Amino acid sequence: MKNDTTHFTPRHIQTRRRMLKSMGALGILPAASSLLPTAAFAQNMTQESIATASGPLNFLGSQPYQVESTWPKDLDITWAYNSTNEDILVKTQQKGAFDAIIIYQGMIDQLLKLNRIEPIDTSLLSNWDEMSPSFQDANVIRRNGDVYAVPLHWGYGYLEYNADHVDAPKSYEDLLSPKLTKKIGIPDDPYAVITTFAIFSGAEKPNNLTPKEFDEALKLLHSFKPQILTIHNYGDEISLFARGDIWVGFPEYSNSLAKSREAGATNLQKTELAAWSYIDCMMVLKDAPNREAAYKFINNALSAGAQLASTEHSMAFPVNDAAIPAIAEEMRYESAEQALELAPMMPGVTVETGGPDVPFQEWMQAWIEFKAA
Fold first, then answer.
1. Are strands 150-162 and 55-61 parallel, antiparallel or unpaired?
2. What global pTM score does this model have?
3. What domains does the chain contain, in order, with CATH numbers?
């Protein structure tokens, strides 16, 4: 996610050029290790003690989710910023520096490997049931049956196309039209692009790819390169569409459609072809100095009022369906369950080596080679 409100994108969809270096320095790569055991950290807390919690709360999030009007008034909140995944990994190294963080759910495994986060007792969250069941029941926020991440907002990657020049693409084959040669843009993001092409290649679990599935996705991606005009940074697609340089872009996120229309591509439309979802979540750090305050903030963030305000501010989708009216009209849906049918949740790419799935460090290397080819 960028640290501004002009073009909101999820943190898991940032360019990972520094990911290998950062993760290696933190001891995540290349050696594999088992997840550390957890304990019942919330055993002395109650809903009442959480409701009356006060004092300082140090939160590590990003600017679009910093909506001070929604904060519990009796908490003294200090908000620090992260802009990429590696920010979370680096800034949470010092024990006690933060109580809670916001990051997409695919970071659970990395944070567990570093022994940074703890399971969350959802029975202590009186607003837990305010969430759509799609998020309450999501497997992607759990490990070994424990909830480690409380959904805050979500979104999905969609395909944008200029209806002045091209009909809505309904299949991968439609994107191969000679009319679209050098008229397509893709983001500089291995996670987003390789996942999308794994969907196109028919992978059963596009985030959890066997070596064979990974090779098939990459083969398809390389064969698609003649259609690509540019590999762009997030936000740059706005001017590319406005100038008419590209007629199709995918995957794009959040307010890209609205911003591109505002910039001049007035007949820009979207389709959920090969769409998939992420969830930005709140997590409690194992060494949280004020755990009850963290629970209080998290619980409050799930309420209808807080979700309405943060949806309007961030332009991300709410996890409480009562806040759907705050979604921009061009992106609005009837229910989260209905929207997720078109854009299923993805768990995130493993960082473990030696297992059945290709780890993210190999995704990174493949992306570097693709761009250099």
1. unpaired
2. 0.81
3. 11-154+279-329 (3.40.190.10), 156-277+354-372 (3.40.190.10)
Environment class of 249 (CB within 10 Å of its CB; exposed 0-12, middle 13-18, buried 19+): buried
Alpha-carbon gap, residue 218 to 215, rounded angstroms: 5
Token digits of residue 129: 């049931």
Is residue 62 a contact partner of residue 3, using CB atoms and an 8 Å limit?
yes
Omega before residue 359 within 30° of 0, cis: no
Full 3-state SS string of the chain: CCCCCCCCCCHHHCCCCCHHHHHHHCCCCCCCCCCCCCCCCCCCCCHHHHHCCCEEEEEEECHHHCCHHHCCCCEEEEEEECCCHHHHHHHCCCCCCCCEEEEEHHHHHHHHHCCCECCCCHHHCCCHHHCCHHHHCCHHHEECCEECCEEEEEEEEEEEEECCCCCCCCCCHHHHCHHHCCCEEEECCHHHHHHHHHHHCCCCCCCCCCHHHHHHHHHHHHHHHHHEEEEECCCCHHHHHHHCCCCEEEEECCCHHHHHHHHCCCCEEEEEEEEEEEEEEEEEECCCCCHHHHHHHHHHHCCHHHHHHHHHHHCCEECCHHHHHHCCHHHCCCCHHHHHHHCCECCCCCCCCCCCCCCHHHHHHHHHHHHHC
Residue type, position 144, single letter: N
Residue 79 backbone phi and psi in degrees, to 5: -110, 120
Check if the beta carbon of residue 168 is closer than 8 Å to that of residue 247.
no
Read off the pLDDT of residues 328-356 as tens digits, 9 standing for 90 and up: 888 999 999 999 999 999 988 888 899 99
Residue with tokens 């992106």: 331
The number of residues in the chain equals: 373
How do residues 219-241 score in pLDDT, each as one tens digit?
999 999 999 999 999 899 999 99
